Protein 1
Amino acid sequence: MKAFNKNNIIQIIILVAIIIIGNVLVSVGIIDSYIELNIVLIGINIILAVSLNLIVGFTGLFSLGHAAFMSIGAYTSAVLTRNFNSPFIFAILMSGLVASLAGILIGIPTLRLKGDYLAIATLGFGEIVRVLALNNDYIGGAIGFNDIPQYTNWNYTFIMVVLTVVLISNFVKSSHGRACISIRENEIASEAMGINTTFYKVLAFAIGAFFAGIAGSLYANYFYFIKPDSFGFMKSIDILVMVVFGGLGSIPGSIIGALSLTVISTLLQSIPDLRMVIYAVILFLIMLFRPQGIMGDTEFRLLNKKEVKHNVSSKGK
Amino acid sequence: MLELKDLNVYYGAIHALKGLNLNINPGEIVSLIGANGAGKSTTLRTISGLEKSKSGYILLDGMKINSVPAPDIVKLGLSHVPEGRRIFPQMSIMENLEMGAYTRKDKEGINKDYNKVFELFPILEERKQQLAGTLSGGEQQMLAIGRGLMSKPKLLLLDEPSMGLAPIIVNEIFSVIKNINEDGTTVLLVEQNANMALKLSDRAYIIRNGEIELEGKSEELLNNEKVRKAYLEG
């Protein structure tokens, strides 16, 4: 089978090695709880950024409601693990599915909108989800949802990040992914080519929401406690900034964007007065000197050696 | 092959096509000529399912296709090369052509058709891996036509292939359209360049304010006094 060539086996061995090394470091105590907290945060942000990139960067749908999908996933997982004692792996999967269902429901009516209009509609969706959570007593309302069992650890985080990256980058390279990219490039032309644009827009939304739900599940089961305000408009903007910072339409870019912005904001915690100022200046400088994002639209080179690479600078942007 | 009967299309309150009648026989090149805003592009967009008609019939080989969604119309053998080229700028030429063959599954046939397109437009083969957005206007138009051919259409709808191009390039493109037609593809050509279109096509319709004003053999229209005054001179 093609899926088990030499390259893939080496990659799998490397990934397994990383998991084992991570476990050893945790048990020896080199990765203490503070470092682990940051690793989990980075992992969650990578999942969020890569999944949002599929929607915004590849399919060209400007969505401002990604945190809402994360919130749906987080609450699903919290309810399942605390109230029903379900196994974590099942909760993760259900979080993804419920978020994805929400993505389909919100996607079918709103995805006929374009650009700014879609952004406003998804923004409204995010607020609706937040307000519903605020007013629902079963999930704690404004007080928040407490005593969620802590299941998220190094293994779950790393495996979910790898799964997200591998599945989304494979999707993007498939013919379905090509259809999504063609919608970004020119929607009328792709419709004239016989592509069912509504279907692919909803599909991209559903897949993006699925992984955002998983990220929410990891989040809820790491921090014991979630409240509706953690998944507000600003969270959606944070994710979008990571995607744009790394480069729209580049999966390595999203990873680097999530990684560097999480690390920067953690490092700046020691100077709380200037934190947001410095953060803003860094974003400002990057956008000024590299408007296409850190990685532009480069893809993994290791994974697809055969493809001829395009010259990024030749883009008309 | 394609028949429009009493076709009415509205954009909100605007009556864009007022009871249009049009008929295309297999193997023909038919041109649809008219000024800005006459309804030429609307006609094409309605045929290929991008606009909805309010009443009337669009018959493809006798089958009514008014409410067939755009993706399925491509599968029925109708390919629309949209106005203003609308190539995918950040995909390579090869990827653009692949997108054209999106509805097809027969790998061998697709490979054959790549070669056919490259025969028609050798410049595209030379630049296979180049990003389509970096091509010149003429090359982009060639790519758009090539992409349209990749779905292996029975009927090719061309929307203003001469738009914004130098006369020498227009000549080249029109001679390729002739070749495509001689290979057995029926062509519906929408043009503002009436002179070129009438010289190329077998029959022509002249559309004005959403209605067919004149129709007939292209040669006859070329010599028609009214047509000369309105569309060919000054």
Note: Chain A has twelve helices and no strands.
Protein 2
Amino acid sequence: MSLLSDLARLIAELILIFVVLTDLILLGSSRLTSTIRLSAWQGMALGFLPLMVSRAGFGPTTLRLVTLGAVLFAMKGFLFPRLLLRALRTAEVRHEIRPIVGFQASILAGIAIVAASFWMGGRLPLPRPAPTPLALPMALSTILIGLFAITTRANALNQVVGYLVMENGIFIFGVALAQEEPFIVEMGVLLDVFVAVFVMGIAIFHIGREFDHIEVDQLSSLKD
Amino acid sequence: MVIAALILIPMLSGSLAFFLADDRARRGLLVAVALAHFGLVGLVWRGWGAASTALAEASGAWLAIDATGLIFLSIVSTLFLAVSAYGVGYLARERRSAHVDVVEHLYFRNEPEAVFTGCLLLFLGSMTLVTVSQHFGLLWVGIEATTLASAPLIYFHRQHRSLEATWKYLLICSVGIALALMGNFLLAVATPGGSEDSGGLVLGNLTRGARSLDAPWLKGAFLFFLVGYGTKMGLAPLHTWLPDAHSESPSMASALLSGALLNCAFLGILRAYQVCLAAGQAAFCQDLLIGFGLFSMLMAAVFVLNQSDYKRMLAYSSVEHMGILALGVGLGSSGAFGSALHAVNHSLTKASLFLTAGNILGAYATKSIGDVKGVLRVLPASGVLWVAGMFSITGSPPFGMFLSEFTILKAGFDAGRGVVAAAYLGLLGIIFVGMSSLVLGMAQGEPAEPMAPRREKVWSILPPAALLLLSLAFGVYLPPTLRDALAEMSRSLGGR
């Protein structure tokens, strides 16, 4: 039993490390298909996190936990990437052309964010023990890197990917540190995120058709 | 039972509207749902009593109507009824074929009306869900759903500018609301023994056990709620998307976005505030609310003064009034009552002004303040509504907003925050001068090109007039039932 829970904790930690590594690779990629795929890999890995956290001795392993993981795996791993890739095809764009912060600088910023998150995560007093000391820093890094990507990418698709990364970070925080929310609320959250990606995909389709590009920093006719 | 009907009727008929091919049937459905919703809210009021809020809190149910929820629900329902009555005529007036955009002179088409109506109804359903949610997770789901249902409304006129506004709205608000989700999780961390044991993140349970909440994490949660829902509410400096979205959407959608939706986001902050209040952390939250409130008023004052677009002017005025709402709650005691009353009056007046702005835009085909002259002559009824609405929104007596703004001012002095109260009064003065000169300039004079006075349609006048009259009436006489509910809401926010 103890061996099993140690193994589960190890896997949970590997998942977290994998997520942060994909965060960093994502910051350095210009190809839109790669960023979408990376977010898909991240989502699939996170599908296993609820199960591993519970097997590591934090909360009971219930059917709804497994269902939640499976739904997450399917949505973030397959459904969202499909929606985004379809938007990409109609927009006929391949690369992020001019990010507001360059790719190498972005990776450096990402590493700085991870370092800062470890520093911060070590100082925040948790009322309850976390399944692994990595959980808080990794959640914070992923949230902040997602925010960073949203603000420094000019391409609408990469902004959506940034939003998904941020959402993944919040999910890590929720699974690892807060006790799970009731199943129906979790499903409501996932449904909302799904509709958000769907509506954003439609918006990107329209932006691509109207402007012949999806560089949203060039949409600047509205200002005072 | 009633709650389920309030949510499900708009949701189901909204889904149905997407597939209804006949325009008349769809518009009929819109009005029918609005009437049904309004009637159901009336039923809730009939069964309303002094003990209702306590009952709602004690039950620990996820969906329940307390005083605060009922006030906001009634605002949503009233506005939706007015807007749908206005909408029947508005949608009939819209052209189906490609037509020329008045600013960029490019051809564009409208979004299919079925999509617009469907989203409008889903929007009503999701706002209703927000007002009746007692569970923080459900509240979050509702608020994010309002964003998604309302984004297509902004893009009704498929122009470049409205697309830009839609994108900013979708992305900025989604990110903001994602931060509020983080707030939910922080709140769960602050709950001793995990949220499961204490009955989940239900408002009543949290306030009852508030003393045992972990203070630093609770404060952190409030910060995330304030920034997250504050983005959606349009508190400066998080308001950047708001003027774009509210000015580029069709006027009937603008009225709902400004009048009903901003309140829903405010409700999210209020729920978090209620928990902090019970946990004895009110002082921390109050300073933040006052700071964001005053800064919002300042930003609004700066941008109203030199505004050249009258719908943007109204949008910045919304930023101002959201600031006033936050400020009133932050001042506490009678300020909370002032905020509650102000939310009602602001919604009625702002929706009326946006609908009137739609009439002006329809006649003049421009949103530029400088190009509109002589509204009183060309559109006599809309002109009167426009000027009267301006006096109402700037807090002139005898309109209801005078009463609520005065109450908040007095709360400021009572709380010993003379500087805050003085700054508040000064900013109100600046905005009054700015808005009145712009609005009166539009109302008076002669149009640049001669325009004959028009006979205005009843549908375009009656809804905004009714809303404005209601706000006027509340300035003169506050019905006892409403006063009790407002007092109940104010008590739950630590006021008197």
Note: The longest helix of chain A spans residues 63-91.
Protein 3
Amino acid sequence: MEELVVIGNGMVGHRLVEALRDRGGDGRWRVTVVGEEPRSAYDRVALSSYFDGATAQDLSLGDLAGPGVRVRVGERATSLDRGARTVTTTGGTLSYDRLVLATGSAPFVPPVPGHDLPGCHVYRTIEDLDAITAAARAGARTGVVVGGGLLGLEAANALRLLGLRAHVVELAPHLMPAQVDEGGGALLAGLVRDLGVQVHTGAASTAVEAGPDGRAARLRLADGTHLDTDLVVFSVGIRPRDELARAAGIAVGERGGVVVDDTCTTSDPRIHAVGEVACHRGTVYGLIAPGNAMAEVLADRLLGGRATFTGADTSTKLKLLGVDVASFGDAHGRTPRCLDVVVNDAATGRYAKLVLSDDASTLLGGVLVGDAAAYASLRPLVGSPIPGHPLALIAPQGEPVGADALPDTAQVCSCNAVTKGDLVRAIGEGCHDVPALKACTRAGTSCGSCVPVLKRLLDKEGIAQSKALCEHFTHSRAELLEIVRATGTTTFSALIDAHGTGTGCDLCKPAVASILASLGNGHILEGEQATLQDTNDRHLANMQRNGTYSVVPRIPGGEITPDRLIVIGEVARDFGLYTKITGGQRIDLFGARLEQLPAIWTRLVEAGFESGHAYGKSLRTVKSCVGTTWCRYGVQDSVGLAIRLEERYRGLRSPHKLKSAVSGCARECAEARSKDFGIIATDHGWNLYVGGNGGFTPRHADLLASDLDEAALIRCIDRFLMFYIRTADRLQRTAAWIEAMDGGLDHLREVVVEDSLGIAADLEAAMDRHVATYTDEWAAVLADPDKLARFQSFANAPDTPDPTIAFTTTRDQPVPVGLGMPSLRTREDAR
Amino acid sequence: MTAYATEAPTAWTAACPSARLRPDDGVAVLLPGGRQAALFRTRTGLYAVDNIDPFTGAAVLSRGIVGDRAGEPTVASPLLKNVFSLRTGLSLDDPAVRLDTWPVHDDGTTVRIGTEGTP
């Protein structure tokens, strides 16, 4: 094994080690990664989400350490001895056979007087963000960002989210001069000003001046004016961290950066450089996509491959302060005799420019501001003939470019350098849906802007994205729901006779049962409906492995009086039930025979409980922390809200289970972000997060809306849940539903928060009907002899318990015996 | 109505009143000798199969959802959702697994299961 030392544990260094591992390089290289930051690699592109609720943990790219890979964080490389092939770090000396410089870059701070005063910051690392946050919390009211580029605008948004009045000072005549032309920059400035950020363009900063306390207090401008401020963030550009290479005599570029050839090798054949520290053909790339491309090339080379890096696309699409900005190809129109086609619509806040070849036949590049939806289809067209009239491509109602128009060499995913050809091949090899394409090619796994194109490619390749529920219905769940709603169908038999074939199965029957229940069709065990219900719904309790049931009394928000707690204990004792505390702040009573359920429910109902939904595709629990009721950090009444939410949404049938939690402050003790809808208290109200889950693929929920009062919050959740119920597929959890949605979270926010489809009132009315018609399902069974008849051991011997059920004692409690573990492959496994 | 006796049963066990067994529904029936049948009425007929799910050992099949696979009447176990033919008792997931079946008769008043002679 040879020693590979990687200096720098940023995104590109991380990608290099991943790429080596993916190619099976762990047998050839022993890798040591040295990173000076106190944590392992994180997603710097998403850094500003740190101010929007993301934690350092969320941003982490994961731990690289494993067989053959050591990661040393908090350790800085200080010198390089190329003769001895060693690198000295603050933690010791490492020998290498090959060395990779992935040191990235550092923010450039212009040497104006006062640039190093207390109160002056940069914007690059999580530590930088923590320092800015601390300054804001210490009472800062106003902040100035020097630099109106991409990072400067992100920094301005961060200040805004921290509650500061934000100014942006840009030397160039317009914002984002590197990506956007003057027209786009002017429109962008207008949109940014609308958000309350003051924009000063063509403004040169000459000095930072201190106040009486010695901290930065004003920024002096070249025109003689000044801006009063409490803090200054410098974000005027970056400089490659090439000092190690310079000191060791490795060639560096005129304007910095370690010179590399097309194999990412420096002037020393044993030393490579990738990412923002590398200078390739005179260019230092400050974007992640070229860095990733270099990492892939170098990984290939380190394993004897022949890959080359010949330059990269600097196209970008991002959302800054909620404004879409994209630029691609020759955005500035530097090609000789090129033509522009421009739509500059100040009325709707959209700017779009296409740069075309002199005969207007070939797309060379473009700029989109305000609405970048066309980016995914336009960017891969760069260098190709344009289909139809150019104006049609950027007109407000422009049709998306067909996947047909793309040549095979067109890069569909520029973040991961995946071409249309790669994707078509992957589809041919059996990747038949978007998740499979993502896993196989990595396309769509970074910024996600190309996902709509992936769908169109699947369509074009004739992969019918079958939504058929099962062999009995060709419809998707959402389509069936619409049929049931439109036709007023109230029974499964009527539905299958009119719209399906055969007699149904264990897939379509519960799905239709759920639809009927979601639309309000009385008790779920009424008449034919009883025969449609899945295992647990069929007897309103959780069936366990030996055919007995567990009962989980509803304890809204997890709040319970001692007397009621004693009732649960007495019921468990009297019926001999195994008792365990659940993860959902309830108490689970196991081992009830079918025929015992009514008697158990009777006892619970008498004590004021209802047996709860710990089962079924329905609302489970709304967990809470104690919030302002007890906690010295709480800022809102999380228990009260959790109880009101659980009582509002209990019994709601949905495409999959629904979990929720309410945390009373940002410490998030209720783990709300692991829920389908989680609520976290802020000083001003509540933040609503959606699309989280635990389980096999854990996922944190994303912020949908912030600082809502309770009424607005409930309206928002009403709409979210009803929209989910109406449009999701069978067994599609909220996270997968949002991911599969065209436009994803942004679209969901438009529908739910901004009511872009005009259906909010209808969704709210549907939820109001649910709340108004909710009844205790278990008490209703006790009141109806017909339904009670379902709870018998044997039709011909109702007093005889099932003789196959037996218990033994483990840790002083009854547990099932005699059945052994299921040994055969099940259908669920086989899927 | 009589279902799937390969030879005439010599004794019948009363399972339940006819009205108790509703369409597409099932009940558990205790047979002489301690075995249990899962008794179903579907759109295509009456069926009785062993109530014990061979994949889990639990006596739960009477609580499964009935339906069809390509026309073959089926019940799905409520535990791990393995599917069985109601006609033959064969597992549609694993052809080596088969449930015992019994003939069923409904005279309009009482549903009965034939318990001797087969199987």
Note: The domain at 120-236 of chain A is CATH 3.50.50.60 (FAD/NAD(P)-binding domain).
Protein 4
Amino acid sequence: MIQVHIQTERFDTGALLRPLHQLGGGAVASFTGIARSDHNEGRQVSAILLEHYPAMTQAALEDLATEAQARWSLLGGIIVHRVGRIIVGEEIVLTAAAAPHRAAALEACAFLIDRLKTDAPFWKKEIYSDGTAAWVKAKDSDTARADKWV
Amino acid sequence: MRLVYFASVREAMGRDGEDFDPPAHVNSIDDCLTFLAQQGAEYAAAFAQREKLRFALDQQMAKHDAPIGTATELAIFPPVTGG
């Protein structure tokens, strides 16, 4: 069971995870990414604007989930990613993996979010409370984490 | 082929895409960028820092030196920052 959703609406992590509980395994691991209350050069972030490449995004995320399912023999996996305007404190992304035991679920969940950060065509722009905005720069540390899974 | 731009590249170009008919000597993504950079100031500026650009051919991530082959869509964008 692989599910990939790209949506503008908010989501409820608990409700999305519940079907993973019914797959017969003993472990469900999940990661929820939140729009962080942050400062950049003295400006307060009030929201994130998320752009993506609609023709590519769904397939890129399905490829990641399929790879995780094969590598860790998952019973199920979910990736949800929001696009559009996301207010600080709201959820941005969910990755989750269901497996017979915890090691596979935890590793697969980490794999999904680490590789999503470098392989999926999303771009974040920070909107500041003074009305200005700036694109978020990619971090070398994210590339290093994603490369661990090769 | 269709060129599509995202994020800071889209803003620098002032549009989200355009049609492009590559001349015969344009074989790779690098060749496309070199050719386009000679077609106007906005291309030259948007593609100036080539090491900060990423690419997809027909919706698959591709390296800068990848041959364009029979691809019908070349996407040009900054490193991704989702998640």
Note: The CA atoms of residues 13 and 42 of chain B lie 6 Å apart.
